[in-house]
Amino acid sequence: MALTLYNAPQSTCSQRVRFVLNAKSLAFTEHRLDLFAGDQLKPEYLALNPNGVVPTLVHDGAVIIDSSVIMEYVEEVFPAAPQFVPEDPVARAKMRSLMRFIDEVPAPGIRVPSYNLAFLPHFQAMSEEAFRAMADSKPLRREFLLSMGRTGFPQADMDLSLKKLEQTVVRMADAIAASGGPFLQGTTPTLADISVMPVIVRMDDIRLAHLWDTRPAVGAWLDAIRAQPAFQPTYYTGSLLTEKYPHLRAQLAAAC
Question: Domain GST N-terminal spans what residues (predicted)?
C-alpha cells in the first residue's frame, strides 16, 4: 500500500484529509505545496489534479481529488476503527446533508476573511498583469480572486461571510443539542465534524471565536476535537495562519 498526499499546511481542505489519515494511523508520504509559489499550477501537478487545488491523494497509483471525496474514499478503503461514517443509513444521510451544508456555506465563507486578513499583502505586491494571470490560471478560484482584486473584498462581502459563519455556528449548536453531543451526531465524530473542523479552528485563529460566545456547546465541541489524537499531527507547526503570517498575528494582537 502506498499513500501520497499532495497538500498545503494552511489549506483547510488539506487539514480535513490529514486528520482522517492520521486518525486511522495510515502511513503516507506528504508533499507540501507552496501555493503562492504556484506549485499547484505546475504541469506535473495539473496532470494529477486539473482543478489546480489541493489536496490530491494518490493511492497505489489511483488519483483521488476533492477533500470530501478523499475522506469518503479513505473511509471505504480503510474501514478499520476509528470509523467516521455511521452504519445506520438515516444517520449516514444526516451526515452527508451536514457535509453538503458545510461545503456550500462555511467552507467558502471562511475564505473571504482569510484572504483579506492573511493573503492580501501577497497579492498587493503583484502587478495587475501578474495578478490577473494568476487568477486566470485557477479554474475553481478565478471569479473569487477577481472579485477580491488587489484591494481586498469590500465590507459587504465580509459581512456576508460573517453571516454564513454565524449560520454555521447555529446549525452546529442545533445538531449538538439534538444528538446530545459533544459532536454533531453524538458521542463520536463523523466526517461532518472533520469537514467543519478547519473552519472553526480558522475562526478561532483569526479571533472570530466570539461568534459562539452564546453557544458554549460549539466551544466544547472544539475542545473535544482538539482532544482527538489526530489533531496535533494534523495541525503541525505552520498550519495556522497566525503561525505562517507574522503580520496577521501582529494585526490581530493590536486589535485586542
Answer: 1-82
